[in-house]
């Protein structure tokens, strides 16, 4: 039985890696080599501060955001880029949340992805109709399956920042309203409200989320439901 489980985990990791490879290699080589002020995009992303207050200076993020939508392909490349087998294994549902969170806090790859998703969200909010923003949606949707709570959280936020243009992400966001992490659930519910599609699938998900044991999630769901049905 133990051997079968090991084989299953390896096969699952291989499938996830294949999906990530496909999305990663759909980004142009030019985007991957984009330099800002003579430095690779990844260098700037590494310096982004995820924990700062809104009023706090975030110099690296400001540089990336000021570059506009043209930087999004490179950010998407980072978001779905290479992960170790251990990173991929963290996506498996049976892995305890505390184990996933501990790993994510020490994985530089997953932290880079979370920062990339955060910057994508800021750029998307300022440029919701840009073609590069629309092109980022499949990458953000894929990132909702990350083993890192922070990556899922930031990706859901980014999809909410896109708003109506992110309608293709609705099925995955609906699934994320049942995420094990309350922050991810809340951002997914909020994103569904911002996208603004009052389909039976969305309304059913919001109705269930309205009864969430976390008060922030339930309140956000009720507000989203009210906005969609008024």
Number of helices: 14
End-to-end gap: 53 Å
Radius of gyration: 18 Å
Strand content: under 5%
What is the topology, as strand order, of the major beta sheet?
A: 1-2
Q: How does the helix and strand content classify structurally? A: mainly alpha
Give the SSE string: HHEEHHHHHHHHHHHH
Percent in helix: 55-70%
Largest sheet: 2 strands, antiparallel
Short overview:
Helix content is 68%, strand content 2%. The protein contains 14 helices and two strands.
How would you describe this structure to a colleague?
This protein is mainly α and 230 residues long. Helix content is 68%, strand content 2%. It has helices at residues 2-24, 29-32, 41-46, 59-66, 72-79, 85-89, 97-106, 108-126, 131-143, 149-162, 170-176, 182-195, 200-209, 215-229; strands at residues 35-36, 39-40. It has a two-stranded antiparallel sheet with strand order 1-2. The radius of gyration is 18 Å and the shape is globular. Residues 5-11 and 13-31 have low confidence and may be disordered.
